[in-house]
């Protein structure tokens, strides 16, 4: 019968619960309705999300161009930076709007 090694002591202890960056109620998913928000606020958040989505598609197309040999690394870096900023601003806007809607 083969010998199975004993796991280290720390592997036998229960893992600590993971703490998400935002509680589940404070970080709604994209496109989800935000109760208590005005139509103008919802439109602002949706337009930020749409802009980030559009940049993501552009980034994928640019990566495909690079794979096919038409390289422009400066454009790729600029798109990556802009996409990252757009993602962050869309998520920050959604979380902030959700928190103010829940608080009121």
Q: Count of DSSP helices?
A: 3
Q: Please describe the biggest sheet, giving its number of strands, its sense, and whether it closes into a barrel.
A: none
| Radius of gyration over all CA atoms, rounded | 21 Å
**Structural class, please?**
mainly alpha
Mean pLDDT: 77
Portion of residues within helices: 55-70%
Written as H for each helix and E for each strand, in order along the chain, the element string is HHH
The low-pLDDT segments are none
Proportion of β residues?
Answer: under 5%
The beta-strand count equals 0
Distance between the ends: 65 Å
Shape: flat
Task: Tell me the layout of helices and strands.
Layout: H1 9-12, H2 39-67, H3 73-103
Describe this structure in words.
With 104 residues, the protein is mostly helical. It has a domain at 38-104. The protein contains 3 helices and no strands. The protein has helices at 9-12, 39-67, 73-103. Helix 2 packs antiparallel against helix 3 (73-103). The longest helix is centred in the last third of the chain and has 31 residues, at 73-103. It is flat, with a radius of gyration of 21 Å. The termini are far apart.
